[in-house]
Design a protein that fits this description.
The structure holds 2 protein chains of 2 kinds. In chain A, 47% of the residues lie in helices and 11% in strands. Chain A is of the alpha+beta class. Chain B is globular. The chains are: A alpha+beta, B alpha/beta.
């Protein structure tokens, strides 16, 4: 971790009470800043909250939100809620995997996209849905999802 | 009156394009000299018609659906400017009713889609915080608890425990500090009721919690809300700030000696945290794993203090009950359960959205009268209630009244309110496998039967969808289900087998078809289906270029052939074929 990053870390930590109940909010703030939870950050959190590193690791790996690996530039979340499931979420997932050449949970080698399965995005009437970064794209078909992807790649298809 | 335009600005609406419509409306209004107010409101509940625009005129309300930015511009120019409504996008007008709404009874959703959720004054103008004033002026804490008991309100998170009784337990506990929690960790896939309430009427939840805190003697609260709901979180934060400014929240509320504060905790994505003890561990900063009860949270809850926890919808009912009286609330619904329930109607339905009906309304009325029936007029197969803890009910149960007891008897549960409709193209073995896959992944791992048992059940179901397995496996499923239900600590494990048990009970034939005949009638289970090109093929080559596995060959203008060994059965060829020449068996 670079000096500037350590400084950001310190600033984030100083906003929270050094007690165990701050652990999840701190992890969320760190991840928001860095996109994932770097090991150094987890060590700094353990020290600041005076809890074992194993506890920090245990909590980080328990919750689906936390990532221990860096993210791609764009995060694609494929909704696998019940409504999306019956409306073809698996198919959408497959198209994305084929187009990107990666499996769910992976990041493309050029670091552009990370593909993730999520349980439910809560916009069931637009099923099947994906969310790219903070934008939801609904009523997807095989064709439409390719267009959405092309929009983020910057190549007009 | 000054004309007003409201844009449905909840997550669903935004995903469907409400931001662009909102901008187009504002741009169009700014180019005219008209005095029109453009407002952003919460979820109107008609997800199937998003983006939605409402025009409030002297003579009444006009509702437009499926509005594009161009339509928005026309609405301003033609309707507001020249008095000519845009007929082709008009759903409701003073002369035109919409039966989607007429069978509904809105209590929880009374303000959603009506008021601007980011403006506390609009909530107050609709009678908001009157209940709190009434409670502080006229009622003792015990009066409040008695009123909630009399209303017959039961917990809307799924289990249906009587709310007044729960409050009584927490009120009776002796302690120097007590907590209130709002469970907004809506984790059931296919459920979005709580999100819409949080986004559409956050003050109703806050007011309910403040009243609850007064009743049980709590001075601090947490709202545990999914991080996946950024808009809900934003509006809750705004709501809390505004309530503090008006002295509805904070020190010495409305000049009394009652003080109360609410914090927000963002959930980090664990389905098991919907369980109350797991949720409390999560607020305390740990892994969200449940613990045995007793002691119940009312005695020993958050940070070991007495705690009362209710879900979003339960809290949102409270101000209405206090304002209108327990009698009026208990008149709605059934004898054993008062009021309404909000359902998130989705799946293979014509008109999906948020539906609020009196408890005891038959399923048929919800699915056909309100939801408009099955999409593309296909055959109804099942309705899934209660998410991964619930079950799939077949057509015979369509006349079942929706209440806690009847649904439990049928093997489903009321649950938090997800209602997914399935048609003839859905395979029930696949649906059971889908839910088991979910619970198996979400099991926290504490109880062996839940951790290992769900995995074993899933493996059997995986085999079924590949056409393997035997009658003996069905018995194994049943026996595993029994043990998992009995020996799991929390609701996740105790209900995890429900989707399998209900499908076995109502769709047994489908299981047999898979196992004994290697056949999936719904053509969902890939190992059991084959794709073939018929003589209808015109040789347009589109399927061949679309096929991700390069399994299709053929010369232009001649019949194409699918190589069964290479085919991955994704169905891309079916979708692109212009002459429907690809058959699935």
């Amino acid at each position: 971790m670079q000096v500037s990053e350590s400084k950001i870390m310190e600033e984030i930590l100083s906003e929270y009470h050094p007690e165990k109940s701050s652990l999840i909010p701190v992890l969320q703030a760190i991840q928001k800043q860095f996109g994932y939870l770097p090991r150094e950050a987890m060590e700094a959190i353990a020290e600041y909250l005076e809890i074992p590193l194993s506890t920090v690791y245990g909590v980080s790996t328990f919750y689906a939100q936390f990532r221990l690996e860096p993210l791609g530039d764009h995060l694609i979340k494929v909704c696998h809620g019940t409504a999306c499931h019956v409306r073809g979420a698996d198919k959408i997932n497959e198209v994305l995997e084929n187009e990107l050449g990666i499996k769910s949970g992976e990041t493309t080698p050029d670091g552009t996209f990370t593909l993730e399965r999520v349980a439910c995005l809560g916009c069931c009437s637009l099923a099947p849905v994906i969310m790219v970064d903070d934008t939801a794209h609904g009523n997807l078909s095989r064709e439409k999802v390719k267009k959405v992807l092309a929009g983020y790649r910057g190549d007009p298809r | 009156m000054k004309p007003k335009i409201s844009v449905g600005y909840a997550s669903c609406g935004i995903a469907a394009g409400a931001s662009e419509v909102d901008k187009a409306l504002r741009d169009a209004v700014s180019t005219t000299s008209m005095d029109v107010e453009v407002r952003r409101v919460g979820c109107v509940g008609m997800c199937h018609n998003e983006p939605i625009v409402e025009v409030h005129m002297e003579e009444g309300v006009y509702v437009y659906g499926d509005v594009s930015p161009d339509d928005a511009e026309s609405i301003v120019r033609s309707h507001l400017g020249e008095g000519v409504p845009l007929e082709e996008k008009l759903i409701v007008s003073p002369e035109k009713d919409y039966d989607y709404f007429s069978s509904q009874k809105k209590i929880v959703l009374r303000n959603s889609g009506v008021i601007d959720p980011e403006n506390i004054q609009e909530y107050i103008d609709s009678g908001g915080y009157d209940a709190l004033k009434k409670v502080l002026d006229e009622m003792s804490p015990q009066d409040v608890i008695d009123e909630i008991k009399d209303s017959n309100l039961r917990g809307r998170g799924g289990a249906g425990f009587p709310t007044g009784l729960k409050w009584q337990f927490a009120a009776d506990a002796n302690a120097d500090k007590k907590y209130i929690i709002c469970n907004a960790d809506e984790g059931d896939p296919g459920a979005f009721m709580d999100r819409s309430i949080l986004e559409g009427d956050p003050h109703a939840i806050l007011e309910g919690m403040i009243i609850g805190a007064y009743a049980i003697g709590a001075d601090e609260a947490y709202i545990y809300c999914r991080a996946e709901y950024p808009l809900a979180l934003k509006r809750l934060n705004i709501g809390i700030e505004q309530a503090k400014e008006r002295s509805f929240l904070g020190e010495d509320i409305l000049g009394t000696d009652f003080s109360f504060d609410i914090h927000i905790k963002e959930g980090a994505g664990a389905f098991v945290c919907g369980e109350e003890t797991a949720l409390m561990h999560s607020i305390e900063g740990g892994r969200g794993m449940p613990r045995p009860r007793p002691p119940f949270p009312a005695q020993k809850g958050l940070f070991d203090k007495p705690t009362n926890i209710n879900n979003v919808e339960t809290w949102a009912n409270v101000p209405w009950i206090i304002r209108n009286g327990a009698d009026r609330y208990s008149e709605i619904g059934t004898e054993r359960s008062g009021g309404t329930k909000v359902f998130a109607l989705a799946g293979k339905i014509k008109r999906g959205g948020l539906v609020e009906v009196p408890i005891g309304t038959p399923l048929r009325e919800i699915i056909y009268d309100i939801g408009g029936g099955i999409d593309q007029d296909l055959e109804f197969k099942a309705v899934q209630l209660g998410g991964p803890s619930g079950g799939c009910l077949p057509a015979e149960y369509l006349d079942t009244p929706v209440d806690y007891e009847t649904l439990t008897e049928a093997g489903a549960i009321m649950g938090s309110g997800g209602m997914i409709v399935m048609d003839e193209c859905d395979c029930m073995v696949n649906v059971a496998q889908y839910f088991l896959d979910f619970t198996q992944k979400e099991s926290c791992g504490k109880c062996t039967f839940c951790r290992v048992g769900t995995k074993r059940m899933l493996e059997i179901l995986d085999r079924f969808t590949e056409g393997e397995g035997s009658q003996e496996d069905i018995e194994k499923l049943r026996s595993l289900a029994k043990y998992i239900k009995s020996y799991s600590l929390c609701g996740l494990g105790q209900t995890a087998p429900n989707p399998v048990l209900t499908t076995l009970r109502y769709f047994y034939d489908e299981y047999i078809q898979h196992i004994e005949h290697g056949h999936c009638t719904a053509t969902v289970c890939r190992p059991l289906i084959i794709f073939q090109i018929t003589d209808e093929c015109v040789g347009c080559t589109r399927c061949a270029s679309e096929c991700p596995a390069d399994a299709i060959s053929g010369d232009p203008k001649s019949k194409h052939v699918i190589d069964q060994g290479t085919c991955v059965k994704c169905g891309a060829c079916v979708e692109v074929c212009p002459v429907d020449a690809v058959e699935v068996e």
